[in-house]
Design a protein that fits this description.
The structure is a homodimer of 504-residue chains. Chain A contains 15 helices and 19 strands. By secondary structure, chain A is of the alpha/beta class. In chain A, the strands form 5 sheets. Chain A has an 8-stranded mixed beta sheet with strand order 5-4-3-6-9-10-11-12, sandwiched between helices. In chain A, strands 14-13-17-18-19 form a 5-stranded parallel beta sheet, with helices on one face. In chain A, strands 1-2 form a two-stranded antiparallel ribbon. In chain A, helix 2 crosses helix 4, helix 9 crosses helix 11 and helix 11 runs antiparallel to helix 12. Chains A and B meet through helix 9, helix 10, helix 11 and helix 12 of A and helix 9, helix 10, helix 11 and helix 12 of B.
């Protein structure tokens, strides 16, 4: 039988995916952490891994943490690297590796693919992904969307099969509102029943993180407001007690809501709100561009009003795992679980709009090039991650933009300080800005607003060295025209998405 | 010929609309204000009247103000009452009458219907209304919308026909972005040309107010951030100089934008943003109600995030003159003036959603009544104004709600501390809360969130006195269940729009 390999996105090393039991190692880990409570975190993604680190570094040092993920080619490398002492998260936040090194020293964080780990756990935290599938027409309009729960249910079953009867299960995954009550609870009850165990002792709660991968990655979990709930009073109390030991709840008080539906809804509402704000900016970008208006100065002027402070700047679009799907998840739940016939049309429309943004961005670029009588032999893209300060390329708007560009142009090169391999496109990425801008480009397009680019003004110097003939197109409003070499001028050879230029 | 009458919305007095010239009075006013600059404010609506008062009360006392409106049955009463020393604005802000009384003492505010007043003016401020027409289908979906500019153009022509060649014209009306350049400018140039005057001396600018009628009515003009622009540098300078004399620009610095399109866009963008936020809350209200979730506690929990502070509470809907039309105005301009084919779909959708809100609210009420085996012989509505603390009923969501109710129920009575005559429905309104709650109702529905209702807890006492059998439905989240008599309980005989109740 052929061995499955799992290649690390952090180091590029390929690991052989095991298929046996990991129980011996689990036992050993529990023994060496005697006196500590066992927490099992299901899912070692962008949330689960850092959540594990935060728990392993709790103030009272009372926890030993199992991090679980699947023995698949996509996921296993994280397990292998964590246990080999390599942090699988590449981040601009130094606390990530600090917390990782601490856990290593204390030997209280072990990663595994073996769900027997749940049998040891006093607390189980569900941090797995739950995806939304979208079907679109040729114009990018969303025709339908679905939340296939099969994988999620399986994951919950793997807990129910072995968990303690009085375990606390804390769901952190973003789920369709109603999921804890209508999906998780019955699965656990069924499993306990079939194991001949009482079904009234386990606790089930929901609390969502507000992780922002980036320079404040760890603090966005540890030092930030949290909302939580339980399926009953004891569950809510248990969640509260646990969260107080890992989160700085004195500075960031917890908020308890009445039902798990409430917190589940709060999470997707938060993200839908954000998605809608972005979608709003996108629509007005087009208007501003056509009307010769600088949308940045308009937004700045309006934001002076506290009631309008959340207004957003224009940009290349929205990416990442959450904002691109959560509004659909909400709408899906409103229909499937709660009979709201029309769903949440505006939220769905927001996702649709946002998904179209790279297309608008491409049109913006094409339109500029039409006005320049110039042969384009090389294009440079600055940034491929979906947002500033992070190495996450999942659903990055740059991906769609890149694909559109590459249908019309050869020789497109990309740079990103946080991404060395662009997994989705299997592309090698230059991480050195200096090396990258040493190449000369006909067009340089800023596609991610990494603040690093502005540190020490290096980008301005490097642009100054690199080419007088270059056109710069800033799709995220990063660059300051005043700091660019004097031969750059707005709407002549320097363009900003969301800033109109009168065509003549 | 029959005389036209104009009936005051403030006092109920009917005035005969004049049709002659008012020039003698204009002359006299100018003479008695020698040494002062003359400002003419076109339009004595909710903005123009208070703007006039603010200018007449400028710190350096340098202005005499003409307030202009039309000699029509709708508008003339304001002119008559101002000149008779009666403030035509009913407001919870004591500064309104204070400013009015001051101007009376100084004799520097005169109202007129005679556009010859513009011939004396150094500064002309355009504060007239510009409406949007909507066509809807049977389900309340917006089929089309238009911005008929005929009346607006006429008003600008009336300025061009007599204005000084070096006048400063400051447009404050909310207009489709592009209007100053594409409509106002050419009209004034044409008029001056035809009068044989130079066309390069007048100044034209745009600056929008952010009036919030209510307890801070005057300060929302005088003490608040302002955005301004001019069609050229001198115009922008002139606007700046003028605004600095009437607005507290030290505490609330002015923001100059590059073009009149920019400020025109800023205004409609602001209001579209607000409309969208409301529309968002509306959609999630339905979801929360169906899912048994209390949307108020969810919103409170989320608002702790500064990035989500603008999230809004659910409610009966949006009313007033601006939010119900500005997004359409913006979309219209994007298509008509700047060739954006699709317009601003999300903004249009927001208006459509918001307009449907009273319908949802009616459904909410009907649904509750279905679960109560109770004959409904009397209904009380608390509040008919479109928002808290104001007497403005224009486009109040309560209007549509009332109409729907009245198709199914007789004997609906209304109360509002700020409205004695509901002009749109020609209904007498009880202004005394005490008298109103002395009547007994089967259902009491809170329809406007006037804070006055909560002063001294009077509403809770009065409800306590009025009826044990009453059902209370709060459509704006005003009442506090804890303060209501103990026999009220949530989702039994006290219901809140946006707070779900599990139907059993």
């Amino acid at each position: 039988m052929e061995q499955i390999k799992s290649t690390s996105l952090a180091t590029g090393v390929a690991y052989t995916v095991p298929d046996g039991s990991d129980e011996y190692a689990l036992q050993k880990f529990v023994q060496s952490n005697q006196g500590k409570k066992i927490v099992a975190v299901q899912g070692l993604g962008f949330v689960g891994t850092v959540m594990s680190l935060v728990i392993a570094n709790s103030d009272q040092d009372e926890y030993a943490v199992f991090g679980l993920d699947l023995a698949t080619s996509n996921s296993y490398w994280k397990i292998a690297e964590i246990n080999a002492g390599i942090c699988p998260i590449v981040s601009s936040d130094p606390l990530v590796s600090e917390f990782f090194e601490n856990a290593k020293l204390k030997n209280n964080f072990y990663a595994t693919y073996d769900s027997m780990a749940f049998s040891f756990a006093d607390v189980i935290i569900v941090d797995i992904n739950l995806d939304v599938t979208k079907v679109k027409d040729d114009h990018g309009n969303i025709e339908s969307y679905d939340v296939p729960l099969v994988g999620f249910k399986k994951a919950i079953e793997s807990i129910g099969q072995v968990c303690k009867e009085d375990v606390l299960i804390l769901v952190e995954t973003t789920v369709p509102p109603g999921t804890c009550q209508k999906v998780v609870y019955p699965i656990i009850v069924e499993s306990l029943k079939s194991r001949g165990l009482p079904t009234d002792k386990f606790k089930l709660g929901h609390s969502y993180e507000r992780v922002m991968p980036g320079p404040n990655y760890v603090n966005s979990i540890k030092n930030f407001y949290r909302v939580y709930s339980g399926i009953n009073e004891e569950s809510a109390d248990a969640v509260e007690k646990f969260l107080k030991t890992v989160i700085s709840t004195n500075e960031y008080p917890l908020t308890r809501l009445k039902t798990t539906e409430s917190t589940e809804m709060a999470k997707v509402l938060e993200n839908s709100y954000r998605a809608m704000n972005i979608s709003f900016a996108i629509e007005w970008s087009r208007f501003a561009e056509n009307a010769g208006v600088d949308l940045y100065e308009v937004v700045d002027a309006i934001r002076l009003r506290p009631t309008h402070a959340n207004l957003m700047y224009p940009g290349i679009g929205v990416g990442g795992y959450c904002l691109t799907k959560d509004p659909l998840m909400a709408s899906w739940a409103s229909q499937e679980f709660f009979g709201l016939e029309s769903g949440l049309q505006s939220s769905v429309k927001a996702v649709e709009n946002n998904d179209k943004m790279p297309m608008f961005c491409f049109d913006f670029v094409s339109n500029i090039l039409k006005h320049h009588d110039k042969e384009i032999t090389s294009i440079g893209l600055l940034g491929v991650a979906y947002g500033p300060g992070i190495g996450d390329t999942r659903f990055s708007p740059v991906e769609d933009f890149y694909k559109r560009l590459s249908m019309h142009f050869d020789n497109i090169k990309c740079q990103d300080p946080y991404v060395s391999l662009w997994a989705e496109l299997n592309l090698e990425i230059e991480t050195s800005l200096e090396a990258f801008l040493g190449l000369s480009f006909d067009i340089l397009i800023v596609t991610t607003g990494h603040r690093d680019y502005l540190n020490n003004d290096s980008i301005y110097e490097l642009i100054g060295r690199s080419g007088k003939e270059m056109i710069i197109i800033d799709t995220v409003g990063l660059l300051d025209l005043q700091k660019l070499p004097a031969y750059f001028s707005l709407n002549k050879n320097f363009y900003v998405l969301g800033v109109g230029h009168n065509e003549d």
